């Protein structure tokens, strides 16, 4: 039974056109229905009030005539029109029709509705010297007017709903036609056609803004695809180089054993293998940073100034000149291992390009913690300052290869910074070379500090 339920195809929902049209018709139907009911009710009340007001005027004239003696009881009895009259006195009841004898006597001078002779009547009464005068008039014309109006509305409301449904369907269909066009265009875009874009109408409406948003998304997808393609190509090239070196030495050792000593072959294999290992580790780290998983769940207090001082000690141990006088307290929260790696990559980059010395500094300013590394090298041209943070980019190709650079160090620095909510950039250094800056959100000060 459960397998049958799983095999059952998903229920297909109605189209947007149908749902919008149905919703619009339902809303209009409720509005028209309430309006029609209110109109009929108001019309009936107005007509009844009009009949009651006319009848009250006739009653006043009749009572005045009876009291003045201008209207005799005999004339009252012989009255034959659409008004029922009953005179109730201590001596008896005088009526102009049998149905008048059944009329109730309204209290308080208010008009009421009562059945008489099979029809609805408006009944009013007043006290005169001769007794209580009760008069009534049939509501048949009022009922007929109400029925005619109801019948008219019963035809007009469905016609109005049909008109509304037709107009809404046409308008929605024309609006969604552009969406269908965009959907078809997007559906035709595959990996070989990422340079294609969605056409716009230049009207600046919501559909144009949707098309512009989709085009920006396609721009990002195309840029990402090209970046990945270039990344794969560069990574393949980088890994091919150490493999080629090892293969060449191995073939040379096999062809001419006397020309290659075993320790030379061992050194080449170990060096190139270490280079390959470094490239693979850097690629894996960048992949994790791209997924924003490397820095999540591993946040702890880290002092950028401690990282800078540790790098100063390492550089001096290598016999290179380094200045740390500008290092100030710069607490942040993050992954200590990744931040340490980013700091080391900046220092190694400076060492490769410095002529004589490097300078490290750190500070907290406006809620941002910054660590920078200056060198006295040739610097980075302004046009290349964003380019240097791309993967496998080396402005000095030959020297970077000789020094063991893979072109991934600065890319790792920027990705580490962005995974911690910061960034990295390069500018000119006071020494004349380049200043690489790692900027991160500063750690909040402890309460009560």
Automatic annotation (TrEMBL):
MF GO annotations: phosphorelay sensor kinase activity
Pfam family, one: HisKA
Keyword match Translocase: no
Domain HAMP, residue spans: 173-226
TM spans (from-to): 20-41, 151-172
GO annotation, cellular component aspect: plasma membrane
Keywords noted in UniProt: Kinase, Membrane, Phosphoprotein, Transferase, Transmembrane, Transmembrane helix, Two-component regulatory system
Subcellular location: Cell membrane
Domain Histidine kinase: 234-444
Catalytic activity: ATP + protein L-histidine = ADP + protein N-phospho-L-histidine
PANTHER family: SENSOR HISTIDINE KINASE TRCS, SENSOR HISTIDINE KINASE YKOH
Protein name listed in UniProt: histidine kinase
Upper lineage: Bacteria, Bacillati, Actinomycetota, Actinomycetes, Micrococcales
